[in-house]
Amino acid sequence: MNQTIDFQVVDNIIEELGCKPSAIIGILQGIQEHYRYLPKEVFPYLAKRLGISEARIYSVATFYENFSLEPKGKFVIKICDGTACHVRKSIPILEKLREELGLSENKKTTDDLGFTVETVSCLGACGLAPVLTVNDKVYPAMTVDKVSELLKNLREEM
Amino acid sequence: MGNKEYMIIDGIPVEINGEKNLLELIRKVGIKLPTFCYHSELSVYGACRMCMVETERGSLEAACSTPPRAGMEIKTNTERLRKYRKNILELLLANHCRDCTTCNNNGKCKLQDLAMRFNIQNVRFPNTAAEPKVDDSSPSITRDTNKCILCGDCVRMCNEIQNVGAIDFAHRGSKMTISTSFDAPIAQSPCVGCGQCAVVCPTGAIVVKDNTAEVWKALDDKNTKVTVQIAPAVRVGLGKELGLSDGENAMGKIVAALRRMGFDEIYDTSTGADLTVLEESNELLKRLEEGKQDMPLFTSCCPAWVRYCEKNYPELLPHVSTCRSPMQMFAAIIKEESKNSSRKAVHVAVMPCTAKKFEATRDEFKVNGIPNVDYVITTQELIQMIKESGIVFSELEPESIDMPFGTMTGAGVIFGVTGGVTEAVLRRIASDKSNTGLMSIAYKGVRGMEGVKETTIMYGDREVRIAIVSGLKNASDLIERIKEGEHYDFVEVMACPGGCINGGGQPFVPYEARVMRGKGLYSADKLCNIKRSEENPLMMSLYNGILKGRVHELLHVEYASKNQEG
């Protein structure tokens, strides 16, 4: 996981949000937006710039579910498992996705960094249930059968 | 009643006298309210809920985070509170290792202590404790995160008092742990090994690394000559655990105990401190005479401070004294002397300090790959060894240390308390060598348990500005001030608040007892017939003997390998 970090990108984010400890969440969000995860290498740099310990930044980064310390796949698939989607059978869709991609609850990203599969509690699109998103594009009224086709299309895009 | 404000605690009217919280007031009236997460010197966390009290309206408040109000009525021991406290303890024990008999913290554990106090005889929940997750990468401390109760004392100590920031909370909810960044081994973190986290840890989650087995083994080997040096702070730190009073000087008894255990030669690190005084004051005088104005001379006795400086302020290293710590100066000489023996030489140091364990492993202090100090044991480990050997400590007849290195001075003894190094150096460089001159140094603001002390003395016609700090947060604040242009000539830094008497290897005691430890050292100084290091007759013979032409080699050091783990 030795990613070369463009510290200019990090610097720009820090400059925009202010070089102060209280801006840490925003800064981490900015970095995650750029890299799709929080690379380990930015932690010492941030600690030095903001004057807080690496352990504390790690504390913040692990507290929020939204931050990822693992690199995410090119396609991040989020399956909604809110009440409406759940009763309309979102779990079989999740299981099908995991089966086809060789993933599990603990292993969320494929080794080739192609796909990440995770669940969300509600996407706020209950009328379209069961719903999933691929990199923020919404796929409504999903079924187990549609999963294979979706993955086939995505693989072609890669 | 005038302007005085009162409140009622368990039916007794109590005067409110500026206490920060109910807990302080309750403890002042002699009620031992239980806590896990409260330490007066740290910020209030209010997580353990053991200090809950019931108000007159029947509501429950955490005493640690509620200020006292005039007219308030509280109860500290009701059926409801007892039930809640038991419940909390049962829940903590439900996922805590209960193998107390084989725990390193057996007998010193607050969880064990409170479970006993609240008569927990049955835990209604199944035990879900995970297997031990031990990190023994550091030579100073050993961590087992699965014995952690998440009180956060270590985190606040590491961040607020020491400004090290090696550990913090990580993850959330049931997955929360205390962790280094990315759960790296503690030796790869910014940890400096000061051991203050182990001092405040209520359970066996952070303990001092145990080296007693190695020492026992050396003592048992007839072909090994085991020499030992005892640091100043140790003599005032172990009394309470062994049936003496807080701060009582137990040096004579320690010597007697060590001799019975089989140590061949027993010395006092204060002698090493005398060497440090001579070398360090020479360094200071040279600086003053050269008129170097830019940066102060920082002391180098404290290994946790040296490590902190290496990790956080490498640019300051050229201004840190090149003197080895008293332990290392003395060890170099003792090892040199032991060369004459036909037996294998092992040197043990009894220290109040966990960072010394790391210092002993540093390459700078090895000769042909063999460390000058083979093993460092802390005061806690010494207590353990004394108990193990069955010696009734309180009944021991005091004995004196050995020759040829058995003379020391009062200047060396006070190294164990914050301000001591400075006072010893001032005794050396002061032109007024009279008794009143000696006494006046003591009143120049070098004594006392404050974290930051400043004083100015005259050297010739020059004003010498001195700062004394203990606690690494105080040190880093001072360094920032110096960087902004404030001028000092000499800065004494001790990593542990109050100096070595409160080191990470000392048994944990409340604040009042810590003050007694300091007093104990100052009265030991008073009892010494020699007060100044340069008057120690041994110094002359050392400089004309072993040290001849080798002062730099044996007494000084240049910290080169900054990237060693530890």
UniProtKB/TrEMBL annotation, chain A:
Q: Which UniProt keywords apply?
A: 2Fe-2S, Iron, Iron-sulfur, Metal-binding
Cofactor annotation comment: Binds 1 [2Fe-2S] cluster.
Q: Any idea what this protein is called?
A: NADH-quinone oxidoreductase subunit E
Q: Which family does the entry's similarity section mention?
A: Belongs to the complex I 24 kDa subunit family.
Binding residue positions for [2Fe-2S] cluster: C80, C85, C122, C126
Q: Which InterPro entries match?
A: NADP_DH_HndA-like, NuoE-like, NuoE_dom, NuoE_N, Thioredoxin-like_sf
Gene3D superfamilies, A to Z: Glutaredoxin, NADH-quinone oxidoreductase subunit E
Q: Which organism is it from?
A: Lutispora thermophila DSM 19022
Q: Which cofactor does it need?
A: [2Fe-2S] cluster
Q: Which CDD domains match?
A: TRX_Fd_NuoE
Q: Give a single Pfam family match.
A: 2Fe-2S_thioredx
GO MF annotation terms: 2 iron, 2 sulfur cluster binding; metal ion binding; oxidoreductase activity
From TrEMBL, chain B:
Molecular-function GO term, any one: 4 iron, 4 sulfur cluster binding
Record-annotated 2Fe-2S ferredoxin-type domain positions: 3-80
Organism expressing this protein natively: Lutispora thermophila DSM 19022
Q: Write the signal peptide boundaries.
A: none
The 4Fe-4S ferredoxin-type domain sits at: 139-172, 182-211
Instruction: Report the record's Gene Ontology biological process terms.
Output: ATP synthesis coupled electron transport
Listed A to Z, the keywords are: 2Fe-2S, 4Fe-4S, Iron, Iron-sulfur, Membrane, Metal-binding, NAD, Repeat, Translocase
Task: Name the principal localization, coarsely classed.
Answer: membrane
Q: Record's Gene Ontology CC terms?
A: membrane
Needed co-factor(s): [2Fe-2S] cluster; [4Fe-4S] cluster
Q: The 4Fe-4S His(Cys)3-ligated-type domain covers which part of the protein?
A: 80-119
What is the name attached to this protein's record? NADH-quinone oxidoreductase subunit G
Question: In which family does this protein belong, per the annotation?
Answer: Belongs to the complex I 75 kDa subunit family.
- Enumerate the subcellular locations listed in this protein's record, separating them with semicolons: Membrane
